[in-house]
Please model this.
Amino acid sequence: MGSIHNNIQIFQIKKYIKIPDRRLFSGLLYVNVVNHNDNNSSDDFIQQVHDIDDASSGSVSDGIEYSSAFAGITGSTPNSAQTLHDRGRNNMKTSFADYDCFVFHVCGGMTLAGGPVTPSGLTNAQGGAQLAGLTPPMAQTADSGSTYTWLDTSAQLSSADLSATWYQNRSNPYGDYCSHFVKHHLLSRINNASGHVKATDGSRYFKHRPQLRRKFTVSDDQHYASASSISNEYVMSNGTYDTKTSNGTDLDGKNIITLGTGNSEGAFIDLDNAFDGTEDGNTYYSPVDRVTIYGEHQFAPASHFAGSSGVWSTAGTGAVHVSDYWDLVVDIGLRGNNANGSSSVGTSNKAIMKSQVNVSFQPFGETQAFNVSDSAHTS
Amino acid sequence: MALTREERKLLHQKSKQPTFGTGKPESSEGSNGDLSFRQVEGSGTVQYVKAQGNWVAVASSGEMPAIRTTGSSSMGTGGGVTTHSSLNGLLSDDHTQYLLIDGSRAMTGDLNIGGGDGALTFTNAGENSIKIPNNQASALIIEEANNAYLTFVTTDSGEKITLGKKLEAGSIEIEGSAFDINGGDVSAITISGDLTWSSDQSSVTSLSLADAKNINLTTGNIILTPSASDTITIDGATNGVLNITTVDNAGAGANINITADGAITIDSANNIILDTAGASNDVIFKNGGTERFAFKNDSTPELDVTGEFILDGSAGITIDSVGETSIKTNGSTVVRASTAGNLFLHAAANAPTGYFAFGIQMKKQIYHFSTGYADFQENFTMLNIYKEPSSFEAYPS
Model:
């Protein structure tokens, strides 16, 4: 096993795709992320961090240096700053190689038919008098029952509040039978960052995270009444990088990086070559940590509290339960910075670099009604 | 012995001399044609004429005898004057029953003229007139029995001549300076000179022809001049060309307005040409006052439609342009067919130099493509999303 440090610093990009209830689809989902073309005149991110960190002028921000992409962790403190290994790509300006591309087969949908669960065995109350009669009381009246106000907010109970059924049990809010049945299968992931190895000289390293590919199989073609075997693959990258033509001719300067000054025949360096003297090729940067894909719908019971007790309802004012649409969430975890810098491990508040994200979703199935948003749909 | 010629002449003269006497002459007296003046009691002097063997009283200084009588003898027996010129007081106007040739005695009764050509003839070389009384509703009526042909009304402020019968003027001219023909029917008229309506047309409401009648002009025009130097000319030309020309002498406000309380049909056997000019050159169709079609008729023609517009063809509809064909929505191009046959959707740009355009190229954000049959059935969609992180570390430099 190689070095593992599971401190996760992610900057999420989420896309919410509104879909009607109970529409089955399947289709391809492409996710392409690349170092932004603003950085096209710079070296690739690994080389650039090294060069700037190693130079007398310029600097790499602590948010980058001590992010999970580069730093190890000792407890809750990032490892001390170390010089990133020199990959020998100075001035090659190959920031374009910092990409990560995914192809998923996405299938499923979400059913909202079940709806909120009606609790059993819980004390419930309906109307101002009953809410005021709970122990402890949740509402009170100052005009002999003409109107009631909530004890926690002092707001007058609305007609929705008065007609709703409220269940008393703070630790057991409403259940909901709605569920997504979205599954995805990673068909392919290709990047140029799968070859990083922790340098033996103690210099820091890029930590690459795989994307899970799961397979359910049996051993042969029979009707099984037993559970299938589950096999997981953790894919760092796929992809073959050709260095020869189909007739075996080596690619040359027309195709691949050429080293040297031109005074003598240079070497042609492919991504897998250890032209820097080490054996770890594919040492570019992947801006993506993980991609997740799932369904989500609006479900938020209204609640009021009195001390350690509370009541919940799906019908009171402020309660939300959407039963006619849901969101397919494409959740792209970009590698994030360490907002705390060098002092401690902190939650990311920035992507570690500016990237370009392109998502293509090509669903085939029971609907062509979609609505894409950066936030969850509420209507 | 026979009478000599002189004797017969004298006898004849004597026989033609009126006789005088008293009482009514007897029928046996005198001969036909003889005259006799008789003093008749109750009648004064009565003039008798013998006709057909009877004496007929034809005049009297008093009342006429009740009946005509015949007398046995007309001849006076006395030895009175037998020669009229020998009578005394011939110039005495004591026979008031007679008209005087100088017209100094007014007639007291009706005048009956036997008639004939020139029965009433004026011979004065100077002015001749028939004077009629003033301020009379029927100052003079020329009538047959009581059937008036011509009535002269001298009623003050209402003086007129009323024709009771058709006036046939033949080929003669009727000239005047202030004709007032009011009402009636002019069955046919030929006007050789100008026909000018007077300035006072306050009571004129229309110029009407009976059904199926025509106004026939050859090479002349109908010219309306509603204001000075501003004209409307309707004229015809060879081959039946119709020209309606309006002129606003001081500007360009000589509009032509046609208001029909029904349909207007222009049925042409050839082109219908609407030729506009100037800056305001639209050809506009309205419905109930609301503009519906406006043809911008200039070097960059444009059809502007107000309202939901449907192009409904009973056969194929072809849009054929030499240059690009574009369809816009709210000013933005959504479909563009290039001259090379490429279809660009949603303002997609041409291919960069050195590259080829695809058959269909689309510029669209997120919602690129979808096709399907129905909800739950056969739907395929292509959603493409671009995103950059909202916050990121600066690239090390």
